[in-house]
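Anyone opening a protein record will find just a pair of labelled lines. With that in mind, the following record should read easily:
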Amino acid sequence: MRSVQQPTKILYVMDYFYTPNGGTERQVFELIRNLDRTRYEPRLIALQPTAYLAKEYFPCETAVLGVRKLKTPSTVLRLFQLSRHLRASGTRLVHTFFVDSSIVAPLFCKLAGARVITSRRDMGFWYNPRTLAALKFANVFVDRIVANCDAVRRNVHRREGFPEDRITVIYNGHDHAKFHAAAAPRLRAGWQLGPTDPIIGIVANISPIKRHPDLLKALTIIHQRYPNAALAIVGGGGEKDLAETRRLANDLGIANRVRITGSVHDTVPFIKHFDVSVLCSNSEGLSNAIIEYMGCGKATVCTDTGGNRELIKDGHNGFVVPVGDISKLAERILRILDNPGLRQQLEANARADIYGGNFSIRRMVDSHMALYSRLLNGNERHPRN
């Protein structure tokens, strides 16, 4: 009688899990939720406790390691205990996310006999000499790194020295159905905007890396031609960053044309009101905000950083401008506002690129499962998806 093959046990290790609403945590949530349970049995361990893991639904068993500082005897003891548990449970694969997990987990997971994957999802704006040295040591015990775009892949090879043929690119996955959500009702009235007032929008929490001041200054240029144009900032931020943003808007004389939503659960109903979508960051990996702009059929102006050019093809579905070039940022926004036919073509191309491209949840999950299978079976002939 043939025995039934048991699913392979996979452990996911993250620094924390605060919310499944966006970013890396959303990608991990969807990956685990959509894994084929006949092939894989996932479990999640977080280094730090969060209210979400304590109270809310997660699509697999979870545990908290209780690691707050990396260089302590208690941390080393917990990691040795984790290693023993992995070996005893027959866990064959470990996949880490975020920097602390990618530093401390690989050695101890490799001691348990597991294959180890780590992920990189940005351009390493947090790199410093100490962190890079720790990552390079940890990478000795890593079988594969997953990057979420080609720009991140190249950056990891250049900065961390990890072999390019062992870095797999898997794009972020999104549920295309969410792009069909209706626009937020009565938003213009609530914001005291007229039916034809142009709305320039950005989805990004307010922080220095997102360079919101550049967009505020660009709005002063845009107002010379469109005095009723408004800027919608969809996202929250710390008290200091919010106060500085409001102060700058007031100093520039545009405070009455700036709307800040704070953190929102679903950005799509707000994006649907944008006439032009913007992302003017210093650094990006593969921007979920740009993917959402495109899925909503919006023309985008973004800065030339990270994986932005893998999404926005200049003149095809939007425009790409140099980081910090405020005049160019304003000029490209004005070009879209001035040319309805161009805007319609950019919007149509953006929507077609998302729906015909590599950004579905199904493709993201299938690409991960294919990588897992290759590693577990010792087949390394196809290093990139």
Notes: The chain has 15 helices and 13 strands. Residues 142 and 237 are 35 Å apart (CA to CA). The mean pLDDT is 94.
